[in-house]
Amino acid sequence: MTQSAVHIFDQIRDLCGVALDRWHEANEAEVRADAALSDVRRMVASLIENGCRLASVFAEDRTAVTEDFLIYYVFDHPDDERFLVVRTVVPSHMPAFPSVAAEVPAVNWQEREIQDWFGLVADGHPNPRRVALHDNWPDVHPLRKDFPSDTVLPPFEGEQHVYRPTLGEGVFQIPVGPVHAGIIEPGHFNFAVAGEPILYLQLRMFYTHKGIEKRFEQLPVNRAVYLAESVSGDSSFSHGTAFCQAIERAAGIEIPVRAKRMRTVLLELERLYNHVGDIGAIVNDVGFGVANAHAMRLREYLLAVNEELTGSRLLRGIVCPGGLRHDWNDQQTQRCRESLRGFEQDFADMMQIIDSSDSTRDRLEHTGILHPEKARDLGVVGVGGRASGVDRDLRRDHPYAAYDEVLFTVPVYQEGDVLRRLRVRVDEIGQSLGIIRQILTVLEPGLHLIAVPPLPPDCVALGAVEGWRGEILHWIRTGAHGRLDRCKIKDPSLSNWPALVEAVQGNIVPDFPVINKSFNLSYSGTDR
Amino acid sequence: MIEYTLSILVHLALVLLLSPLVTGFNRTFKARVQTRRGPGLFQPYRDLYKLLRKGMVIPETASWIFTATPFILFVTTLLASLLIPSVTAQAPLSLFGGVLAVVYLLALGRFFLALGGLDTGSSFGGLGSSREMTISAIAEPALMLAVFTVAIGAGSTNLSIVAQAGLSQSWRFLAPSQMLAFAALFIVLIAETGRIPVDNPATHLELTMIHEAMILEYSGPYLALIEWAAAIKQLVLMTILVNVFFPFGLSPDWSPVPVLISLGLFLFKLLLLSIIVALVEVTNAKMRLFRVPELLAIGFVLGALALVSTFLFQG
Question: Do B197 and A359 touch (CB under 8 A)?
Fold first, then answer.
């Protein structure tokens, strides 16, 4: 598979005009290289010019070992199945790195996170304010190794976040949240409106910052899986799988075929139940309760399938390094297949109800348009991206688990409105059912789990999974005594929140909830 | 005199007790259509009982308007209900005013409700008030035109006389003007009672609310009064629709047998109308807010056409 694929990164390396040292293929999914700190801007610019996408930027504190910090730039390219991870060294006596956020708005928040968490200054960042640590935090950098995780901070009275002022004749602001009327997570939305039309929206996230990345550094690997599962509750299995893939790569093991296939089935089941729930929630937000009632019924139906296969309705506690904790038998496979056949029929009926409602279509079409060029610039991933012409899907572009043995298409629309985000979900449900059907046909008895050898310290690896919401990245470095030294988590929501700001502009206030729901981003995954 | 007082009391009791049931029926019926079980027919009564016993949180920024609003709204709505014939063709307070009084009593309540929404200074209250006034600015004229159409046929704006006139010519509702006026009034009913496609009474999304946004700051007994008033207003508008357009079976006086028949028929007519309203709600998505005036404009045009056709088809 890897042999036949075009290795475009190797060509780009010669084209990009920047010295990329120690270029090597670390494993079948990753090319690694080093770049000088002064070359970072040129390197990012030329890689992007050559069609690469900057998927993530993150830092690591190595002061205990080498007196410096490391910053990693993760790229991918549609014609290469591997990721390119470029590393650069930031000396601890000059804690600053060149910001690329002005040219690549996609990493705006991620660079500011590095500022907040490591105290490394993003030189030339267009908006260098705090993002992850709120303004009432004192000047601490929690992801530095010299910051004990049990630190109790004194209460802080200081400067609060200053929002862009709402000025103008007849312009007023509507502050919403962080506590909301529904059972949802906290986030602050500050609307500037002229009557009903929204002039602009300012977001404030990270109210549920739990220090998950710091917590990873204290847990043994096996228990860390549970933590990975709880990064974002509706993507438990995807997050868990991404983490386990990183561990397995670091250990250099290949999991059994049956485990790969089972993971594929469960990843798609997670996509199914979330997409169905979202479709119901979107139509419910425009007041079409009947369709929502059916969607909730179907979601419940799928949760029962999850339980039948794994014993867990939300697919928790199933995935582990080396495969899956429990196997299932042929009888269960058979029941799953039958259930999904019934689901397919009911889902088609539900979509007929939705499609035949003109009033619903009227509300969804042309609402909350995210233009393709904005989606590209902001690095929007997943459903939101594919509805706005971003033709990326890790399952196809960087196959993992058993995705290289199944046939499926990736739905992409150009219009970028709420209706298209709904349609992407509908199309993906069809594809997911196809994927599961193909896998269940070839699912043969075999091992569902192999033992993972104890991990030597200082192994690094990247795990990538296309969760139902979009691209999930887990990057790990192993430490001593079978623990982790660093775990970086990149949830798709982090990339997509800024897109919501763009999508609501010019829409009217009462359309905001349905636009927000059409992205359905995770607060917990963003805040970590 | 005693009989008169008695009729008012009976009427009040009927309106107060029946109005939550109409709301309860609407919710339960919609739940059944959505394959849900629903909270039960009598939930609105339980809600009112619960709210009346609760304590209240009154915003520090609120003035006397906030406190006065629930009472004014409740009293005006209840008064309006006394001007409409429900089980007898004679409305209890019909001597005091006709349909204009009904419209303006409801408008007075709404005016204070909008003020109450603005009074606390919360941005949601303001949002709700501005939306409510936008909608009522078109819904009110449509309501006037529709009832004028009926009034011209009867030669009076007094709803008792209109209903009695209707009783004597029971097929009048088939006249084009009456049908147009009924359609106009039906649209007004949907808009004024905050039903889908205009407003969604079941939503928790504060940004999309109209009626609910105005009353977000109310709690406890005040909220109970407002909720009850909203239920009564719904019953008032539904009663106008069923008794002015289809007055058959209305008892001319308070003799027991005709009154019981009349009551039964009244409930039956309300039931049918509730089902129609609920079906409109479950088969439609909520309209985009800026489309709502278009819908109400249709109601207005229907009302105007009704009025014109009264004269066209008079002979």
Answer: yes
Backbone angles phi, psi at A174, to 5 degrees: -120, 105
Burial A209-247 (b: 16+ CB within 10 A, else e): beebbbebbebebeebbebbbebbebbbbbbbbbbbbbb
Domain coordinates of chain B in residue numbers? 2-314
Per-residue DSSP letter, A415: S
Cis status, amide bond into B92, omega within 30 of 0: no
Residue A432, Cα to own-chain centre: how many angstroms?
Answer: 19
Residues for chain B: how many in total? 315
Rg (CA), chain A: 23
What pLDDT, on a 0 to 100 scale, did the predictor assign at position B247? 81
Least Cα distance to A394 among A29, A105, A111, A136 occurs for A29
CB A322 within 8 A of CB A295: no
Task: Report the distance separating Cα A290 and Cα A279, nearest Å.
Answer: 12
* Rg value, chain B, Cα: 19
Residue type, A449: L
- CB-nearest to A288 from B36, B124, B285 is B285
Torsion of CA A149, A151, A157, A159, to 10 degrees: -30
Which DSSP state fits A174? E
Facing B285 at nearest CB: one of A297, A359, A509? A359
**pLDDT reported for residue A6:** 56
Residues 6+ apart with CB under 8 A from A462: A29, A30, A74, A83, A85, A246, A249, A473, A474, A475
pLDDT digits (tens, 9 = 90+) for B26-78: 999 999 888 888 888 999 999 999 999 999 998 888 899 999 999 999 999 99
Q: Are A331 and A470 in contact (CB under 8 A)?
A: no
- Strands A471-478 and A460-466, by their bridges, are antiparallel
A-chain residues near B36 (CB < 8 A): 293
Which chain B residue shows the shortest CA-CA distance from A297? B35
Q: pLDDT at position A345, please?
A: 92
Beta carbons of B204 and A176 less than 8 Å apart:
no
State which residues of chain A have pLDDT below 50: 1-5
pLDDT digits (tens, 9 = 90+) for A102-140: 888 888 999 999 998 998 998 888 888 888 888 778 888
Q: What is the per-residue pLDDT for B314?
A: 64
Q: What is the pTM of this model?
A: 0.87
Is residue A515 within 8 Å of B210, Cβ to Cβ?
no
For an interface test with A, the pick among B208, B211, B281 (most A C-beta atoms closer than 10 Å) comes out as: B208
Structure-block tokens of residue B309: 């056709």
- In this structure, which amino acid lies at residue A453? P
User: How do beta strands A53-61 and A68-76 pair?
Assistant: antiparallel
Q: For chain B, list residues with pLDDT below 50.
A: 315
**What is the predicted pLDDT for the residue at B315?**
46
A299 touches chain B (CB under 8 A): no
Which chain A residues have a beta carbon less than 8 Å from that of B195? none
- pLDDT value at position B171? 66
Structural domains of chain A, ranges and CATH numbers in brackets: 3-123 (3.30.460.80), 171-204 (no CATH), 212-526 (1.10.645.10)
| ipTM exceeding cut-off 0.85 for this assembly | no
The C-alpha atoms of residue A99 and residue A117 are separated, in whole angstroms, by 16
